[in-house]
UniProtKB/TrEMBL annotation:
<keyword id="KW-1133">Transmembrane helix</keyword>
<feature type="transmembrane region" description="Helical">
    <location>
        <begin position="123"/>
        <end position="142"/>
    </location>
</feature>
<keyword id="KW-0732">Signal</keyword>
<feature type="transmembrane region" description="Helical">
    <location>
        <begin position="55"/>
        <end position="77"/>
    </location>
</feature>
<dbReference type="GO" id="GO:0016020">
    <property type="term" value="C:membrane"/>
</dbReference>
<keyword id="KW-0472">Membrane</keyword>
<comment type="similarity">
    <text>Belongs to the multi antimicrobial extrusion (MATE) (TC 2.A.66.1) family.</text>
</comment>
<dbReference type="InterPro" id="IPR044644">
    <property type="entry name" value="DinF-like"/>
</dbReference>
<keyword id="KW-0812">Transmembrane</keyword>
<feature type="transmembrane region" description="Helical">
    <location>
        <begin position="97"/>
        <end position="116"/>
    </location>
</feature>
<protein>
    <submittedName>
        <fullName>DNA-damage-inducible protein f</fullName>
    </submittedName>
</protein>
<feature type="transmembrane region" description="Helical">
    <location>
        <begin position="148"/>
        <end position="168"/>
    </location>
</feature>
<feature type="signal peptide">
    <location>
        <begin position="1"/>
        <end position="23"/>
    </location>
</feature>
């Protein structure tokens, strides 16, 4: 990769990082309100599922708006970042994977916030570790095929969507934290003690 490619990558990474945190309030909302619905005195799994559904819908809506605005800036106004035509061309080459990765980020944060609220830390650590390893291998494979910057961003797309589907699957299991009506008194006592 040349200097222009690295410059384009740096611009897009900075933009992605600025935009990725905008979904964090959804995670904080899940972490604030889910514990009471999952383990509190007024335990109500139906309301917890409705809250998660609302958070994912808000995440998808805000992800669409956020990704659209964030992708349109380098597409419509690339000279804000660089006047070099090669840098602009490299930035615009990766707009599709950039959009796809950013689009799903707020929904991921709401799902992971719910998993954190449910104290499913073992699953979160195992799934993130395995997704990271898989994505790293994919990145090395794409890099060896000469895909360069596009390969990096498509690996990020795979990483993000794997996070989304793993968390969604975990939360929608029939014996998962949002559907398991038979929480024993022992489990509830352990949670109260923690």
């Amino acid at each position: 990769m040349g200097t222009q490619t690295i410059a384009a990558h740096q611009v897009m990474v900075q933009l992605f990082m600025i935009c990725a945190v905008w979904g964090e309030p959804l995670s904080q909302t899940a972490q604030s309100f889910m514990p009471e619905l999952l383990y509190g005195a007024n335990r109500n799994l139906s309301k917890a599922r409705m809250l998660l559904k609302s958070l994912v819908i808000v995440g998808a809506s805000s992800g669409t708006i956020l990704a659209s605005v964030a992708a349109s800036i380098p597409w419509l106004f690339p000279k804000v970042f660089s006047s070099d035509p090669q840098v602009i061309r490299e930035m615009q080459k990766i707009l599709l994977p950039y959009f796809i990765a950013l689009f799903v980020t707020p929904s991921i944060l709401s799902l992971e916030g719910t998993l954190l609220a449910g104290r499913d830390l073992k699953f979160i650590s195992l799934s993130m570790s395995s997704i990271f390893v898989f994505s790293s291998i994919l990145l090395m494979l794409l890099s060896s095929k000469g895909l360069g910057l596009s390969g990096c961003w498509f690996a990020l797309v795979v990483f993000q969507w794997a996070r989304f589907f793993m968390a969604l699957r975990r939360l929608t299991l029939s014996n998962g934290i949002l559907y398991s009506e038979e929480a024993t008194q022992n489990e509830l006592q352990k949670l109260k003690a923690a």
